[in-house]
Write a structure and sequence with these properties.
By secondary structure, the protein is mostly helical. Helix content is 46%, strand content 0%. It has five helices and no strands. Helix 2 runs antiparallel to helix 3 and helix 2 packs antiparallel against helix 5. The radius of gyration is 20 Å and the shape is elongated. The N terminus is likely disordered.
Length: 118
């Protein structure tokens, strides 16, 4: 069950744009040896550098990157956009039955059975 508080928690604890820019700027100098002028357009030269850069981002910004997003992060600008985009989770009520698999059904009211049922 997705809890409304989890969305509020992320919105309140989302890193500021200044913090994201600061962290990414520092990490680009450490991992990619980039000058201050064009660090945002810098692409990752190899997978090891990308891994080390993103691992440092995850630890400093306290937000994981799902594996489905890794292929879209090709330069530092993409990482910046990822960390400054708020998380949006669909509510169960907003899900359309057509978008759900056939074996999934959402029941809005819980079904309770007596404990001593035989």
């Amino acid at each position: 069950v997705v809890d409304e508080r989890s969305e509020e928690w992320y919105t309140n604890d989302m890193p500021s744009e200044e913090k994201v820019l600061s962290v990414l700027s520092d990490l680009s100098q450490v991992h990619l040896q980039v000058d201050d002028n064009n660090w945002r357009e810098t692409k990752f030269p190899d997978l090891a550098t990308k891994f080390n850069f993103l691992t440092s981002c995850i630890s400093q910004l306290n937000r994981d990157i799902p594996s489905s997003q890794l292929t879209y992060l090709t330069c530092i600008e993409d990482v910046y956009k990822y960390y400054t985009t708020p998380v949006q989770r669909p509510k169960y009520i907003e899900l359309r039955p057509q978008s759900l698999p056939l074996n999934v059904k959402i029941v809005m009211q819980s079904i309770k059975k007596p404990l001593n049922q035989t």
